[in-house]
Write a structure and sequence with these properties.
Elements lengths: L1 H32 L16 H8 L3 H16 L3 H5 L4 H29 L7 H16 L16 H4 L1 H26 L4 H24 L8 E6 L10 H20 L2 E5 L6 E2 L1 H18 L2 E10 L2 E9 L7 E4 L18 E4 L2 E5 L8 H9 L4 E7 L5 H15 L2 E7 L2 E5 L5 E6 L6 E6 L10 H25 L5
Helix pairs in contact: 1-2, 1-3, 2-3, 2-5, 2-8, 3-5, 5-6, 5-14, 6-8, 6-14, 8-9, 8-13, 8-14, 12-13
Length: 483
């Protein structure tokens, strides 16, 4: 009788424990929900992974695995609405599943190393593995490391200065080091308090050095620049009268901004995709407009001819000089059938050396580094976002400026108009809108390019973490703790 009574009791206890574990995993996933999406809470990113790591360290390997997966899926679900704009639902689910598997890999590998060696150096496992994955994604995927947790710190100006030293890899490493140190501290053991203390000191030093770097930054005082965005796209089905009204509205904005003192006007990406004859008419119109208004004008335009479709940025000079044309290098998912460019363009504009790039181009560190090496003082970036990723698109571009020491002007349809300086300070910002559109007038930052180390130290540190990550995974597999 005793045995028959104990079985239901044991089953009830197991069910209660599983429910508590499920609740704990869901609670652990909530902070991730607010930091893994396209507009993360920067302050929360410093501690959001802590509950997941803590649960993994105090659970069996099997329980740690499914709880980590559940928490990660909940956190990554914050991207579903955005991903659905770009891909069908089955692909969205597959992407989330792959990303959840990466979380599983990192957390379980960290758990194995911590429980096996119980040493202070294991605090490095979690950040090294994430930097390794982030570096591989940036190098191998067509979308790079879009949404990297490092970009969550784009509005934390003091900490952001770390990007000028070691790029996104250095910023991500520090961001992941704190929750790793706190998780080990909560796990207990004499070896962990010194590691946690060293982490706090490193964080304070990074913040203090960043604050000191920004303190002496000059205020913007250069010539005025105007930014324009009208969300309406001129597509094949757009009535001619409507298309003409949009072009006329852009022309009015240019004239008004020029009348307010702007020496440069930046328009957004791919206002229309046109046949060669139509594109030539637009080119002639903006040549004449630049001369009559006495301003530099950058226009984003798509051109389709017998060779294919190209996404271009045209730069018109007020003196009627030859057109500067730049072709987009990195193509977004809806335009993967466009032809990719490979050339760079740096041009003296309004007294500064300015580079041309288009939207997604600035999500890739090598392109940003190439413009830094070419001596660009500012980047002109026509863009087209998807509304939900407006903050992320603007801030990823801004981080390229911090890494490479130049200001950034970015005009995005279905996004934001942004002017930022070499330190990542947002000097002016305004949301775009549909007809009649939005404009922004702001002074250009005036200073020569700022020297940074990110161009060589960032890649070096990232690939060093890739090598260390492989070593750590091998160590973990060779000496996994019993569970």
């Amino acid at each position: 009788m005793l045995n028959t009574l104990s079985a239901p009791a044991a089953s009830s206890t197991a069910l209660r424990q599983r429910l508590l574990q499920t609740a704990a995993a869901l609670v652990a996933g909530l902070p991730l929900y607010w930091v893994l999406g396209p507009q993360p809470l920067g302050w929360l990113a410093w501690c959001a992974p802590l509950p997941v790591l803590w649960l993994a360290l105090r659970s069996s390997r099997r329980d740690a695995a499914w709880m980590t997966c559940l928490a990660a899926v909940l956190g990554l679900s914050s991207n579903v609405a955005y991903f659905r704009l770009l891909m069908p639902l089955p692909t969205v689910l597959a992407v989330i599943a792959v990303k959840a598997m990466l979380w599983l890999l990192v957390v379980l590998a960290t758990r194995r190393l911590v429980l096996r060696y119980r040493s202070g150096w294991t605090v490095l496992a979690y950040p090294v593995l994430w930097v390794a994955i982030d570096t591989l994604m940036a190098a191998l995927l067509p979308d790079g490391n879009w949404g990297s947790l490092a970009y969550s710190q784009a509005d934390n100006v003091a900490i952001l200065q770390l990007a000028a030293l070691a790029g996104v890899p250095g910023l991500l490493f520090l961001l992941c080091l704190l929750p790793s140190a706190l998780a080990l501290l909560l796990a207990g053991g004499r070896a962990y308090p010194p590691a946690a203390g060293a982490t706090v000191l490193l964080l304070l030093a990074a913040w203090a050095c960043g604050a000191w770097r920004v303190q002496g930054a000059p205020a913007p005082g250069g010539p005025l620049a105007g930014l324009v965005a009208i969300d309406d796209f001129i597509g094949p089905a757009t009535p001619p009268a409507r298309a003409q009204a949009i072009w006329d509205q852009y022309a009015r904005h240019v004239e008004e901004l020029a009348g307010q003192g702007a020496r440069l006007v930046l328009l957004p990406e791919k206002i229309a995709v046109l046949a060669p004859a139509q594109a030539d008419a637009v080119r002639q119109r903006f040549h004449a407009l630049a001369r009559s208004a006495g301003v530099w004008i950058t226009v984003g335009i798509g051109v389709q001819d017998a060779a294919g479709r190209r996404n271009l940025a045209w730069l018109f000079a007020p003196d009627g000089a030859a057109l500067v044309s730049y072709q987009k290098h990195h193509l977004a998912p809806p335009e993967r059938n466009f032809l990719a460019g490979s050339a760079y363009a740096v041009q003296p504009v309004a007294g500064q050396a300015m580079g041309l790039a288009i939207c997604k181009d600035m999500h890739f560190s090598p392109l940003g580094q190439a413009y830094g090496a070419a001596g660009a003082q500012a980047m002109l970036v026509p863009a087209w976002d998807f509304q939900l990723d407006a903050w992320m698109g603007a801030r990823m571009t801004m981080v390229r400026g911090v890494e490479n020491g130049y200001a950034v002007l970015r005009a995005a349809r279905e996004g934001v108009l942004t002017v930022s300086d070499v330190y990542g300070r947002v000097l002016a910002e305004r949301a775009s809108s549909a007809m009649p559109g939005s404009t922004l007038l702001a002074p250009l930052p005036v200073h020569p390019p700022v020297a940074t180390w990110a161009g060589w130290l960032g890649p070096l540190f990232g690939w060093l973490c890739v090598a260390l990550g492989v070593i750590l995974l091998c160590l973990g597999r060779r000496a996994a703790p019993a569970s």
